[in-house]
Amino acid sequence: MIGGLFIYNHKGEVLISRVYRDDIGSRQAADSAVFSSSGPFPGEWLEARNAVDAFRVNVIHARQQVRSPVTNIARTSFFHVKRSNIWLAAVTKQNVNAAMVFEFLYKMCDVMAAYFGKISEENIKNNFVLIYELLDEILDFGYPQNSETGALKTFITQQGIKSQHQTKEEQSQITSQVTGQIGWRREGIKYRRNELFLDVLESVNLLMSPQGQVLSAHVSGRVVMKSYLSGMPECKFGMNDKIVIEKQGKGTADETSKSGKQSIAIDDCTFHQCVRLSKFDSERSISFIPPDGEFELMRYRTTKDIILPFRVIPLVREVGRTKLEVKVVIKSNFKPSLLAQKIEVRIPTPLNTSGVQVICMKGKAKYKASENAIVWKIKRMAGMKESQISAEIELLPTNDKKKWARPPISMNFEVPFAPSGLKVRYLKVFEPKLNYSDHDVIKWVRYIGRSGIYETRC
Amino acid sequence: MTDSKYFTTTKKGEIFELKAELNSDKKEKKKEAVKKVIASMTVGKDVSALFPDVVNCMQTDNLELKKLVYLYLMNYAKSQPDMAIMAVNTFVKDCEDPNPLIRALAVRTMGCIRVDKITEYLCEPLRKCLKDEDPYVRKTAAVCVAKLHDINAQLVEDQGFLDTLKDLISDSNPMVVANAVAALSEIAESHPSSNLLDLNPQSINKLLTALNECTEWGQIFILDCLANYMPKDDREAQSICERVTPRLSHANSAVVLSAVKVLMKFMEMLSKDLDYYGTLLKKLAPPLVTLLSAEPELQYVALRNINLIVQKRPEILKHEMKVFFVKYNDPIYVKLEKLDIMIRLASQANIAQVLAELKEYATEVDVDFVRKAVRAIGRCAIKVEQSAERCVSTLLDLIQTKVNYVVQEAIVVIKDIFRKYPNKYESVIATLCENLDSLDEPEARAAMIWIVGEYAERIDNADELLESFLEGFHDESTQVQLQLLTAIVKLFLKKPTETQELVQQVLSLATQDSDNPDLRDRGYIYWRLLSTDPVAAKEVVLAEKPLISEETDLIEPTLLDELICYIGTLASVYHKPPSAFVEGGRGVVHKSLPPRTASSESAESPETAPTGAPPGEQPDVIPAQGDLLGDLLNLDLGPPVSGPPLATSSVQMGAVDLLGGGLDSLMGDEPEGIGGTNFVAPPTAAVPANLGAPIGSGLSDLFDLTSGVGTLSGSYVAPKAVWLPAMKAKGLEISGTFTRQVGSISMDLQLTNKALQVMTDFAIQFNRNSFGLAPAAPLQVHAPLSPNQTVEISLPLSTVGSVMKMEPLNNLQVAVKNNIDVFYFSTLYPLHILFVEDGKMDRQMFLATWKDIPNENEAQFQIRDCPLNAEAASSKLQSSNIFTVAKRNVEGQDMLYQSLKLTNGIWVLAELRIQPGNPSCTDLELSLKCRAPEVSQHVYQAYETILKN
């Protein structure tokens, strides 16, 4: 299991050091520790120091770019993740579950962020006592323990520890929650207004050939839920999943044909740990008791019948050796009543470009020499519209034989619908103990489709 | 609020000040001081001098202060064991505290203090805490047992904590179960033999129930533990799989990977015919693909594991090529791994897409990545024959870019392509030669030199090119030196007249001026060969090279199976067994996949069925010999080339005319050679007569086994024998026999797929052999060979292939290739398949020849227990093309005079003596006369085989 956890700043100085096992640190270090046990450094501390230094020297101060997130130095393995300029490193001498260690490091970042916001050197120094407390709680002898902030916040706070003034009932409530089946939610939450927000966030990825043939396209989506619900509400989420719709439609043939069109085929999905997976596996129903506040309910991936919000039609003509003519048409492909936002088209230019002249019908376009691209920005664009840009690119004559590789034209945008076609059908809330019903809950649903890597070759 | 100030105190006398503050009466001040101490400790300052003062602060109601003191204690207790005892009382008291959080804190911290004296006091509180009413305390105590075991294993056993821990597996609280499982698993690792976890269907059921209820981390512990269980049969395996599959939808990638591990392992036990098996395969692909949308570090772990899964079960992800396409902003470690998997998944179906991608990657910026992409193009060419041409042209385009490292990498892979497809793409050599000057890496230089040497006859200025390398011979790396030596020797053998000086130069450089033993040895070998027997030298140095395998970097199957058991762990990331990076005995228990249950596949014995690889009997992986030692390798693999014993040839060190004698015969060997006798060595002429003595005694054993009945229409056909057992060929079993019918020879093969995957892309090749046997047509296996399917093929053979004397004479070395690997085996063919139809000699001719052949070439044999009369024998032999020229009766014995001719024109004359009237004597006597006496033994064996069947 994890032998120790260290947090460094960008210089490689240690901000947090928590050692769980004394096997970390090389054998050499152990020898020298014995040797110096009467000296100024106590043995165990020195060993850990050794691992700490090994990572600094070999990874943080390494001249080369990081070639692997897992490094083995003298039979000691170091896992690291980086958040802005802070390094988090987990150290072990055993054959640990590597995926678990990384998941834990991410979780650790989430927990810290939930307590004090951005992970920065200053914030870490300001909260070091809190971090040690958290590390003591969520990692015991290197085994990850309950790390849900909802539960942790009941007894570890930035203001110090609550539990000393708690009643016995409160204490046992804390412990049963931390160890219980629903570790992510505490009991006794109350809201005057029961409200929930659902965001369907999708990023649509495309690679298209110059002729308009789709080489690859997929949507990766997330359903993010923000819940402000009292008690321990039982929720059931429904969407237009093809498998569910077809199953339900079996009874009435009419409905199948009607709803069949609107349903979508989901390639794969994963769920937050609150979702009962066995139920999803057997009935494909998504039921759960949500954590309080914001969390990611599910992630999914689709590859079929994707609505591509924009089509890019490029035309590049080489006029002699020193001139390029580029014409790019973009067409919006969704309901005219909807508006796309933050549209940006990036047209790469050759390295030996000396000057560019651009004319565009809509928005603003600029040649950015430092980025070797023409950047065309349009604030808003309605559906079923089309716009065009033409540019003349002057080139410096070069004797470079290497042909310009013509990188693809990329696009960014945001649209108010889900390109996968996913629709939330319902989100039912039941709280049997409290006196509010599904109808009393105010629900909000929002769809945002953003461009992922949306490229057209030219 | 701003704790960062604690980090900034660096003034002198700090310790003294802290001491005063720690002993302050004010609570707040104390707490501040302890915080300062912890901050100093964190940045690496030694604050152990404050030990007594800090421990004094322990007795407090303030939980925060208490935790800080505990943190200090954990770090320094070991250095001050005597003082640490001071803390014991507080711990023991805290373990009785009404607040469960404090009880847990005390037992958790005590376990972290690795001082023997303290551990003694720990036992009682721990025992209580293991049975605490509060689950939070119990789950903490469970982990504490593992801590204590790490300090003092004996104590844990003596105190019976292991049993208590086992009881906790049945606890009502899922988190307690999970921690108990984690603790037990770790303890069990250090006691491989003790059946600590004692997994049985009941406990497995409990674990599976807890699996649904515990935290994500607990699920990982439980799944990792489940993976160590060995279900008793396929039904149990299936039911566990069914209950584990829902985990594939978990958001935590580690849960998914651990579930994949359980499924991959238990799948081994399921029969492939089951519907469920197919369903499971289908279910595995989407979650693996989804792992690729996780954070980059996890993607890396996932990709390393997918790399293993793709090797073990290629069918899972064969349609998912696109998701492994590299994204522009992937970190380099993700890019390199994706590339690796892309090559593994490349097939005829997707090769166009893959190539287009690889071409894009070759223009990226990261040098390592670009190199790997270029190399990948070469690997595609070798793997997918149909794409070879396109790959080569892509590589040529890349060479045109003149980017130094791209050119060098391209040359290295083109060398491999030449090896794989000889005489196909040599037209590009000219382009390669243009880039000679830009090569500065040893591997590329060596590759280029290999190409120049190998194709010396097509490169007009090969001698100049090689000479240019020779100038800086001693500054080159060893691989370049070795290659240069070999290349120049090759050149010399091909163009002996112009290059004599060059070869002497390189030989003396290698043998006299070099300290490298490898180089010297190789130099001497060539030298001796060239000076004693240039013809043999030619056969050695210019011998045909073994095929290179299309799949490179494959993990050895036993290791792969072991790594599959370690999916998700560091071992799977490093692709090394834990013993390679874990110290001591911990966690190095050898794991292996479960055996397939005997009920599902009765044909295979349970020991060999599961992975096909019990230790010691694993199939040999012959990796691509992409290295440049091709010639030497061939020397090792090939038959011994006989020449005069070395003792007779004195090595003339440094003699200028060391090649004097050899050169003539060498040049004479080439038809256009100047001078020299026009002596063409017959295939067997190079073999001294003394080697013709009884050889191949194994052959008779082989035929003793055969008892089937041959067909009468053609020559005798032996029943099929197993030539290549499945175990040695990753599941491909080959058996076969040879037939001769109406003048055509064929090899009747029976291919059986005993592996778990479909086999395709079969091809066959023979090594050079004594009679030039070679496939007359490619091996045609029309449909892919599914598991457990058998196909029968008749492969027509010709006798126009390259000739090389084998030992024994009728030995045939065969290489069979399929989509998995290349396999080598050798077999002995019966000589009678080489007896041609026009082997009947005219009487006069027979007499003349009989007299003409010297008597020492006559060999006598006895064929025992063969009660045939002359007519029967004669007709039997005739059907196998042994013709009776004359028959005589002398003193009651029938004498048959017979003749036969081999495919290479060698005549064999025979006298067969039969005693028909004497039932007590059923032995036949056979005298054979032949100009090539070494065939006699085999002709005799052919006689025996034909007559006795």
Automatic annotation (TrEMBL), chain A:
Residue ranges constituting the MHD domain according to the UniProt record: 193-457
A Pfam family recorded for this sequence: Adap_comp_sub
GO cellular component, one term: AP-2 adaptor complex
InterPro entries, A to Z: Adaptor_comp_med_subunit, AP2_Mu_C_sf, AP2_Mu_N, Clathrin_mu, Clathrin_mu_CS, Longin-like_dom_sf, MHD, Mu2_C
Single GO BP term: receptor internalization
A GO term for molecular function: lipid binding
Compartments reported by the entry: Cell membrane; Membrane, Coated pit
Highest taxon, organism lineage: Eukaryota
SUPFAM superfamilies, sorted: Second domain of Mu2 adaptin subunit (ap50) of ap2 adaptor, SNARE-like
PANTHER family in the record: AP COMPLEX SUBUNIT MU
Name listed for the protein in its UniProt record: AP-2 complex subunit mu
Species annotation: Homo sapiens
